[in-house]
């Protein structure tokens, strides 16, 4: 029986990313998919991105915003303009393979419980190295990319469940995405995909990693390298919000202990390497989280009242990393010294 492929909408959120748009939209224009549209949500760019896209790629529908609303809210606004029943989110610094979209769609259509599918992301300038091959979640409220910095190989070619799908290259069912509340606009950027992943699992849906869907990421293009203070700030405040919103009361104490140990380790490491701005970003992110605590508690009330799977049931799925796994991953990344795809140092 032949699959009937529904219309899909590809949403690219952009802020002053003109230098990346040629590769991104050129690759989207070559997709092997019967019916799709491409929407660029522009967060009030000042680098001529809108004019460039309208002239160079007139088939891209541009939704211009009056201010920078970030990736999370920008994506949600893009969904309100989407005609497709399936919606794909793609970072502006990502180039896709011709089969990128159709491989995601095949999997999401295979099971009505699958709400989202995510791609294998390779580094744009080192296409034999993994950026993302699914994700592990953790009790700090965050998560990490499976395989980051490792050479691509057979172990990354197995389709399977994932803690969340990367907002950099993912597909969702539009109706379920809206039912789940979309991305949390208070997050602005980072870990909004972890938040969505947790909600999906809690409400009885599945998220899948699809290695046959391949994309190439110019890592660090949007907010800089992993030690960028901006990136660290948003990750810190958002993952702490995840703890309050998602974990059951009995888990929160454990989560906060894990978070405190994790933050202490990271702050000491940053200070040791004289990365004082990075250390301060952790503290500033924590302060912003505390200021918004009441809002997180209100969101928590709805999630806990309506969730289907418990913390223990989600843990049994094998998508939650332990504190030891988190620290081991942090230490591994420090040895790799991968901060962006242009200065990559991968042991051969």
Descriptive report:
With 348 residues, the protein is an alpha/beta fold. The chain has one domain (94-348). The chain contains twelve helices and 13 strands. It has helices at 18-29, 49-56, 70-81, 100-108, 174-179, 192-202, 229-246, 249-272, 276-291, 293-306, 311-316, 323-336, and strands at 8-14, 36-42, 61-64, 86-91, 94-96, 114-123, 126-132, 135-138, 143-145, 160-161, 169-173, 206-217, 320-321. The strands form two sheets. Strands 1, 2, 3, 4, 5, 6, 7, 10, 11 and 12 form a ten-stranded mixed β-sheet that branches. Helix 7 (229-246) runs parallel beside helix 9 (276-291) and helix 8 packs antiparallel against helix 9. The chain is globular and about 50 Å long. The model is unreliable at 339-348 (pLDDT under 50).
Question: What is the fold's blueprint, element by element?
Answer:
Blueprint: E1 8-14, H1 18-29, E2 36-42, H2 49-56, E3 61-64, H3 70-81, E4 86-91, E5 94-96, H4 100-108, E6 114-123, E7 126-132, E8 135-138, E9 143-145, E10 160-161, E11 169-173, H5 174-179, H6 192-202, E12 206-217, H7 229-246, H8 249-272, H9 276-291, H10 293-306, H11 311-316, E13 320-321, H12 323-336
Helix pairs in contact: 6-7, 7-9, 7-10, 8-9
Quick structural overview:
This protein has twelve helices and 13 strands. Strands 1, 2, 3, 4, 5, 6, 7, 10, 11 and 12 form a ten-stranded mixed beta sheet that branches. A three-stranded mixed beta sheet has the order 9-8-13. Helix 6 runs parallel beside helix 7 and helix 8 packs antiparallel against helix 9.
């Amino acid at each position: 029986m032949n699959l009937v492929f529904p219309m899909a909408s590809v949403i690219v959120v952009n802020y002053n990313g003109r230098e990346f748009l040629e590769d991104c939209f050129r690759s989207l224009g070559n997709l092997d998919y019967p019916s799709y549209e491409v929407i660029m949500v522009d967060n009030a760019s000042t680098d001529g991105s809108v004019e460039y896209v309208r002239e160079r790629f007139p088939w891209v529908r541009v939704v211009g915003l009056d201010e920078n609303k970030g990736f999370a809210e920008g994506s949600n606004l893009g969904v309100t303009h989407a005609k497709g029943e399936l919606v794909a989110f793609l970072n502006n610094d990502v180039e896709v393979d011709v089969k990128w979209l159709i491989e995601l769609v095949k999997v999401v259509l295979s099971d009505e419980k699958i709400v989202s599918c995510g791609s294998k992301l390779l580094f744009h300038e080192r296409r034999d190295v993994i950026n993302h091959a699914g994700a592990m979640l953790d009790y700090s409220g965050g998560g990490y990319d499976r395989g980051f910095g490792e050479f691509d190989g057979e172990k990354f070619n197995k389709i399977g469940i994932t803690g969340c799908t990367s907002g950099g290259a993912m597909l969702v069912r539009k109706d379920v995405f809206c039912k789940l509340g979309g991305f949390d606009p208070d997050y602005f950027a980072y870990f909004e995909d972890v938040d969505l992943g947790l909600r999906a699992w809690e409400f009885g849906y599945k998220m899948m990693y699809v290695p046959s869907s391949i994309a190439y990421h110019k890592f660090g293009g949007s907010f800089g390298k992993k030690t960028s203070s901006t990136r660290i700030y948003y990750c810190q405040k958002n993952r702490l919000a995840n703890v309050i919103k998602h974990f059951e009361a009995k888990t929160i104490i454990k989560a906060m202990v894990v978070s405190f140990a994790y933050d202490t380790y990271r702050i000491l490491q940053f200070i040791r390497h004289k990365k004082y701005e990075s250390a301060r970003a952790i503290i500033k992110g924590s302060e912003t989280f505390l200021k918004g605590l009441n809002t997180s508690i209100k969101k928590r009330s709805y999630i806990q009242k309506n969730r289907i799977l418990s913390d223990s049931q989600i843990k049994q799925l094998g998508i939650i990393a332990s504190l030891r796994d988190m620290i081991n991953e942090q230490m591994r990344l420090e040895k790799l010294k991968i901060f962006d795809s242009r200065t990559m140092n991968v042991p051969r």
